[in-house]
From TrEMBL:
Residues in ABC transporter domain copies: 18-330
Location(s) in or outside the cell: Cell membrane
Keywords: ATP-binding, Cell membrane, Ion transport, Membrane, Nucleotide-binding, Translocase, Transport
Descriptive protein name: Nickel import system ATP-binding protein NikD
Native source species: Halobium salinum
Low complexity: bias regions: 421-443
Amino acid sequence: MSVLTDERRERTDGRPLLEISHLQTSFYTDKEVIRAVDDVSFDIHPGETVGIVGESGSGKSVTARSIMGLIESPGRIDGGAVKFRDLDTVRRFAKKYDKRTVDVTDEALAEAKGNDAETDADAFRSLVSKKDFVFVEERNGDEITAGYVDTTRAPDGAMRNVRGGGIAMVFQDPLTSLNPVYTVGNQIKESLRIHRGLSGQAATEKAIDLLEAVGIPDAARRVREYPHQFSGGMRQRAVIAMALACDPELLICDEPTTALDVTIQAQILELLDDIQEERDLGIMFITHDMGVIAEIADRVNVMYAGEIVETAGAVDLFENPRHPYTRGLLQSIPGTQGPDERLRTIEGDVPTPNEKPTYCRFAPRCPEAFDACDRVHPVPVAVNEDAADHAAACLLYPEDRSREDAVTLHDEQGKGETDAKTSGTTTGGATSDGTAADGGDTQ
Ligand SMILES: Nc1ncnc2c1ncn2[C@@H]1O[C@H](COP(=O)(O)OP(=O)(O)OP(=O)(O)O)[C@@H](O)[C@H]1O
Ligand code: NI
C-alpha cells in the first residue's frame, strides 16, 4: 500500500489527478433506462490507489468506461464532469484545439467576477462554452503550468490520445488486450512506437526492460514469444508492461486479478504496488473482493446500484465500516468468521436502477432499514462531526444527530443538490441535468 505524501500531491499542486463530479451515465434500452452510474463523485490523487468495490452490476465498470470515453450507444453520459489533470495532455490539446480551450485561471475568474458574475460558479459558467474541453488553470507566460481535460466532453481523437497516453487500463482477461497473432514484444514495441516514438533496437531494448520491470524472467527470450506461450499470471504481467509502455499517469484496473489463483493474484498486487511507488501512478482499482481491496487501496469507494454509498480511507473503512451494505460486504470475506460459521452473503440482488431515486436503493436488503428509508434518498454525509474524510449515504448518519434530524438533513440536502445540479453549479461547466433521463427521453 502506498502512502500519499505531500511530495506526491505537489505534482498537481494539491489538486486531484482525476476528479469525478456528479457523473451520470445511463443506458437507454428498448425496455428501460438503466441509470448505471447515478451521480457519482470521487477523486484520485497522484500516487494514490482508490478502490471501487461493490457487487456485480453496481456500476463499477461503467464508471471506468465513462472516464475513458468508452460509452457507446445505447449508453450516454447525461451529466457531470471528469477532470483529468495530466499536463502533457493539456498542453498538447490546448494547441491542437485552441478553439475548445478555455482559461479558467484565477485572473480570468476574477475578471469575470468583476464584470457581472456573482459567485465563482457564475464566473466559471460565464467563461466556459459547451464545446470547451481543455481547461487552463495556470499560465506562466506562454507556458501552461496547470489544467485539465474533461473526458466527458473531449472529442474522439483526443480521447484516443488520452487512452494511449495519460490513462491506461488493465482488464480481468489479459487476452482481451493481447493479440494472439503478434509476439508480446511486438505488441509492446507498437505501443512504444506510437506513444514514445521509439523503434528498432531501442524499442526492443525498452520492451525487454518493461518485461523485466513487471517481473517476467528471461525477458530477452520471452519478448519473442506469443501470448499463448505465457501462463495466465505472466500474461497479465505482459498486459501491465504494455500499459506502462505509454507512460500513463493513471492506471485503471478492472478486476485484473479475478481470474488468477490466489498466489499469482498476490504477486500481481505486489507488482502494482511497486510500479506505483516508482512512477507515482494514480491507480483506480475495481473489484468485488473486499479482501483484495484491503491489500491494495489507500481509499475505498463502495458502490451500490449506481451510487457510492460509503467512502473512507482504507484502514478506517475496514476498522469502522458504517454503511450496512459495507458491513455486509465485509462479513462475506472468507476467513473473517469463525471456523463454524458459514460464509455470510447479503441476501438478494443489486436492483437495476431505472428511476431517479426517491428512497434508499439498499433498503429492501438492509437489516437496519426503518420507515424513512422508503421515502427519503440518502445523500453522502460525514458519518460524524469528526470524520470529514468518511462519508456514508445512509439515513443512520450523521450519528451525532437524532434520527429525525438526520433524516431531515438528507431530505433537504438531496433537494438542494438537485437544484445545484440542474443549474450546473457543481459540474465544471458541463450540462448536468440530473433529470434528463426522467422525461421519457429514450433516444
Ligand atoms: N451496454 C450496456 N447496455 C445496457 N446496460 C448495460 C450496458 N453495460 C452495462 N449495463 C448495465 O449497467 C449496470 C452496471 O454495469 P457494470 O458493468 O458497471 O457493473 P459492475 O459493477 O462492473 O459489475 P461486475 O462486477 O459484474 O463487472 C448493470 O445494470 C448493467 O446491466
Ligand atoms: Ni465490471
